[in-house]
Amino acid sequence: MKDRAPLRAAFATIAALLALPAAATNSPIELQTALARLMAGLPGEYDSEPQRFFEAEYKTPPEQQHQRVYRRFTRIDAPDIGANVLVATVHDGDKYSKFDAAEFQVWTLTVDEARRTVRMSPRRFRDTAKYQAIATDTDRLEGLAASELVPASGAAGCDLHWRLVGTQLRARTDPGTCRTKLQRLGVEASFDWEWLFNEEELWISFAGRDAGGRLVMGRADQTHWRLMKARSFECFVAYRPVGGPDQVLNGLAMHDRGDVLRLELKDGAVTRPAFLELIRGVWPSNSGRNYLDLLRFSMYEGRPEDPPESRRLLGNSTGSAATDRAGFTIGNLSARCKLPKPAGG
């Protein structure tokens, strides 16, 4: 008879490994790597305009489209608060739109060995107005004291727990821990959040439910807001009118996820409003053959808030999403954007 002891030992080893789910993922070394990845990758600008644009171009009914959201994370050196500190700002719309004071938060990130997660804990500024003007200024926020902060509370005031899932990181709040009174609705609700992150995207969804489990805030379909990581470009515009001096604007800063920059074109006594738009994202295609990730740089006569049909396209260029520059020259108007060279490059 064959000796079955080695086979039984092999099965015992496999059973032991299966009984330790954390041994294969979210191990201590993976959590340290995840923490380093978040601190390196989260800082920067995120805008959901490519999602909104795609849905609008794809003829998604307006009531089903995701409204635009802009987020920014700024890493600061603040040892009194923690070793890994991020300041987060949110605007309901583009970065020039309404500032969301409820999500103006200071996040600290640590490895939670007991939970086998990266814990991301929020606090708020004691004096929001004092810090709003310098919310992205790393020099002025350096050395921020813990005494300037108070505990976060409300719908967005709960810890997020990050775990590695495949090649992405997923964060969730503990169910029922984010509670707040919704004054407009006159009900108390608990909020559950989910964040999905890779180096190009940050997806966010939330659900606010009353005591009976009824959804009172959040999307009915529970689909995510897709905030796309932006690159910062340096731009310039040159306009040489027939009836006046040349206009040359240098050193203009724009990000490539739907940023707009307002301008005025002067021709003698006539001044016309205009704006630049730089957007990188997927362009829909009814044929299905041109579903491409592109960078488009455009200039319009009009204002960003004007109905699209009332604007006049003055010039544009379209290129690969990977390109590091975009521009056009049409008649007496030129515009260019390019990625700055890395420091020391």
What does this structure look like?
Mean pLDDT is 90; it is low at 9-24. By secondary structure, this protein is mostly beta strands. It has a 10-stranded antiparallel barrel. A 4-stranded antiparallel beta sheet has the order 16-15-22-21, with no helix packed on it. A 4-stranded antiparallel beta sheet has the order 17-18-19-20, covered by helices on one side. Helices cover 13% and strands 46% of the residues. The protein starts with a helix and ends in a 7-residue tail after the last strand.
Class inferred from helices and paired strands: mainly beta
The order of strands across the largest sheet is: 1-2-3-5-6-8-9-11-12-14
| CATH H level, superfamily name of the largest domain | CpcT/CpeT domain
Number of domains: 2
* CATH fold title of the largest domain: Lipocalin
Instruction: Describe the sheet with the most strands.
Output: 10 strands, antiparallel, barrel
